[in-house]
Specification:
Layout: H1 3-6, H2 10-13, E1 21-24, H3 28-34, H4 40-43, E2 45-48, E3 68-72, H5 81-94, E4 99-103, H6 109-121, E5 128-130, H7 137-141, E6 146-149, H8 158-165, E7 169-173, H9 178-181, E8 187-188, H10 191-199, H11 205-215, H12 218-238, E9 243-244, E10 247-248, H13 249-259, H14 264-269, E11 276-284, E12 289-297, E13 303-312, E14 317-319, H15 322-325, H16 330-339, E15 348-349, E16 352-356, H17 359-367, H18 369-374, H19 386-400, E17 408-412, H20 418-423, E18 429-434, H21 437-446, E19 452-456, E20 469-475, H22 486-496, E21 497-508, H23 527-535, E22 538-547, E23 550-553, E24 561-569
Parallel strand pairs: 1-2, 3-4, 3-6, 4-5, 6-7, 7-8, 17-18, 17-20, 18-19, 20-21
Antiparallel strand pairs: 9-10, 11-12, 11-16, 12-13, 13-14, 15-16, 21-24, 22-23, 22-24
Length: 580
């Protein structure tokens, strides 16, 4: 995929589950594609293979300073030819010998009109020459001394590279991501800098050739492509039922099982009468294994989430988690899955076949499709992928290390309550608070445990008494808050936490998410911003990073989420008003 394809609607229309591998020609194209396909790298493997110049077609010649300047490319607005004319005018003021030669065609009649008008107005008729489209660039470039690129954006720029291969000095506009492709010393920001680069005595033909030879040769491009094709073929040969996105299926089963809050007794007490299959998914994990999950509801409106059920397509074996497998109702669950769920005719997207059978939920999803896509990660549904769930599980597991038996835990905002349910296995009491009525209703009906108190409430006005909380967990919340409410949010946290208590908080790391524009996040933070905020309220802070499927100590360069354990609360007199 090249630049011109990225800036179309096509990336959104690709059925990525049919793609084994995506090649981009420069790293930043991944960032640009993710603006349209935020979860791109969860859906397809992506590699960068740089474009290559056939060096035998563009022979090197040792050159020196001169007056002939080349400009290569279609005459379109993105190529920024207006800037070229301004550079030309300044050069001719210094020396009328400077001449600019254009290889390319106009594709915009308005631009052609403007160009011809400016040529006359700037009196450049004897200095700017339009040669049109060229079929033999080697011959055309042979008498040129400089290649100027005034473009607004390129993913590479063959005209630049071919000229450099011939020993011609590059003068390149500092367009977005240009430093990823070209050395800083070849870039200019202003007209003055461009003119200085052309008129200076510094001219190193062999350096320009060597840079292309080392980084952008056709031989290197072909070698990298062959290596990639070979690795794809090898993966295809080795593909088996034991791994998923680099994680073993045994590890997935284990982590998912450990996070399930239900015991056999809970299943035994669940009334299996007038059952409605509300919503669920079938996710293709490997070539042989599918993950089957769904939410059912009985005549009383109580929900039961059927987690972590694996189906081997080769042997047709069903593997149930402990809370279902050891239940006296095991046969009922197996019958439900085999006679109904496995027979659903599903449309798969991103390896997931989702279904919604509850009419009210169907209507709500239809009305609020964007919200479900971005924010409503209901467990055991198409809105919660396995890789996404694994990342969430690792975050909650890290938080659980700080919770002791007998602790009172506040989980706010609790979302659908799976974290609150998990903590309830360790803590003596969990208070689950969320602003959304639907979330609290879901939590109550799905996780009806005696030691969870479900409460509708605002994190800036917590419905919790002073100094009653040992551990306050607040995952993925502050990015949703208006900046003017941050101080109130933290003051409320300090109000409810007991002396010696802790706040465990996480938020996305914007440094590695600049390509993602979640419309429901008011502000995402850098590590330094996050740290500065927390320092206003806590004397001691320990950071962790979420990277791939691990929680790592400190904040790493590749972290997508930051997590902080905050304690040693500052007293009220020492609190400083948050100012961002």
């Amino acid at each position: 995929m090249h630049r011109y394809e990225v800036f179309t609607e096509h990336p959104k229309l690709v059925v990525w589950e049919n793609v084994d591998h995506l090649i981009v020609v420069t790293d930043h194209l991944k960032t640009l594609i993710k603006m349209q396909v935020p979860n791109l790298e969860d859906r397809v493997e992506v590699s960068t293979i740089h474009n290559g110049v056939n060096l035998s077609h563009f022979p090197y010649k040792d050159r020196n300073r001169g007056y002939n300047i080349a400009f290569v490319g279609y005459m379109i607005s993105r190529k920024n030819p207006m800037l070229l004319l301004q550079i030309a005018k300044e050069l001719t003021k210094k020396n009328p010998k400077y001449k600019i030669f254009i290889a390319g065609d106009f594709q915009d009649e308005m631009l052609r009109l403007y160009w011809n008008y400016q040529i006359k107005e700037l009196q450049l008729e004897n200095n700017v020459f339009f040669h049109g489209f060229q079929t033999n660039m080697k011959e055309w470039l042979d008498d040129k001394d400089y290649i100027v690129a005034t473009t607004m954006h390129e993913s590479f720029g063959y005209g630049i590279a071919e000229a450099m291969a011939m020993g011609i000095k590059p003068v390149i506009h500092n367009f977005p991501y240009s430093k990823e492709i070209w050395p800083q010393k070849y870039l200019f920001n202003t007209i003055e800098e461009a003119v200085r680069s052309i008129t200076t005595n510094n001219y190193q033909s062999s350096e320009y050739r060597y840079y292309i030879q080392s980084n952008y040769s056709l031989d290197k491009q072909i070698l990298k492509t062959k290596e990639l094709l070979s690795s794809v073929e090898q993966k295809d040969k080795n593909y088996n039922a034991n791994s998923f996105n680099g994680v073993s299926t045994d590890y997935l089963k284990q982590r998912f099982n450990e996070f399930i809050p239900f015991q056999v007794e809970f299943t035994e007490n669940y009334i299996l009468e007038d059952i409605l299959i509300m919503i669920g998914k079938r996710e293709q994990i490997t070539i042989d294994l599918d993950l089957i999950e769904c939410i059912i509801q009985n005549k009383n409106g109580d929900k039961l989430i059927l987690f972590n059920i694996w189906f081997n397509k080769k042997t047709e074996e069903l593997i149930l988690p402990d809370y279902l497998n050891r239940s006296s109702k095991q046969d009922i669950f197996i019958s439900l899955i085999r006679n109904y769920i496995l027979r659903f005719n599903l449309n798969y997207r991103n390896h997931i076949g989702g279904y919604i059978l509850d009419p009210d939920l169907q209507e709500d999803v239809k009305r609020n499709a964007a919200v479900y896509g971005w924010e409503r990660g209901i467990p055991a549904t198409q809105f919660m992928t396995s890789v996404g769930y694994l990342r969430i599980i690792e975050r909650y597991n890290k938080a659980a290390e700080y919770i002791s038996e007998g602790d009172v835990v506040l989980d706010a905002a609790c979302g659908f309550g799976y974290g609150s349910a998990f903590f309830s296995r360790i803590a003596s009491e969990v208070i689950a608070v969320d602003l959304a009525h639907d979330n609290i209703t879901f939590g109550k009906s799905a996780y009806g445990f005696n030691n969870i108190k479900w409460m509708e409430g605002d994190v800036t006005k917590l419905p919790v008494e002073d100094s009653t909380i040992d551990i306050y967990v607040s995952f993925e919340t502050i990015e949703h808050l208006p900046l003017v409410l941050l101080d109130q949010y933290f003051r409320e946290a300090l109000r409810v936490i007991k002396p010696g208590g802790k706040m465990i908080i996480s938020t996305p790391n914007v440094e590695n998410r600049r390509h993602i524009n979640n419309p429901y996040h008011i502000k995402e933070y850098t590590h330094s911003e996050f740290q500065d905020i927390l320092k206003n309220y806590f004397n001691s802070i320990h950071f962790y990073s979420s990277e791939n499927y691990e929680i790592l100590d400190g904040v790493t360069n590749k972290s997508t989420n930051m997590m902080a354990i905050c304690y040693n609360i500052k007293n009220n007199q020492a609190l400083i008003k948050t100012n961002i």
